[in-house]
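Both lines are quoted verbatim for reference:

——
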Amino acid sequence: MEQNGQAPKSHSEGADYHPRVLPFDRISSLEIVCQKQHLSKKVQELLKPDNFYAGCYGIIQQPNLPPIKIRIRAFFPENNYIDEVPLHESQTKICDAEDYTYTDYELTVSPTRDFEQELLWHGRKIIVLSPDSFRQEMLGILKDMAKSYETGENTVEE
């Protein structure tokens, strides 16, 4: 351990090093198979975590949902929090309102369920600005939620 309480970085970890955290605590059954698989170089490269999870918000990787540019607006004080704790490694600040009541950000991420849940977790303090298809998806989720609260019934069949 270094003096600041953090483990020293290995020389393979540069300034843009971002560790991946996988939920091994959710594994209910595991079988270890000690059979070596012969994979092509292309498949080996694809299966490296940084490549396999590129554009993912968390650990959900869906080939049918490629990463897209998503623009969000975070209202005060959430914008300050998101400046300090970015939602995703691709997050960039686009602009601040003149009165600092909101900040617009852009992320390149797959719009998976876990990303939708993260946005919903922030409640009224984050909205999706674009693309319109994802904005409408989020609006649909919110409308379904409101209807469920009004009726007390499940409004979505899965």
Residues 1-13 have pLDDT under 50 and may be disordered. The beta strands are 68-75, 92-96, 102-109, 126-130. The radius of gyration is 20 Å. The CA atoms of residues 97 and 103 lie 6 Å apart.
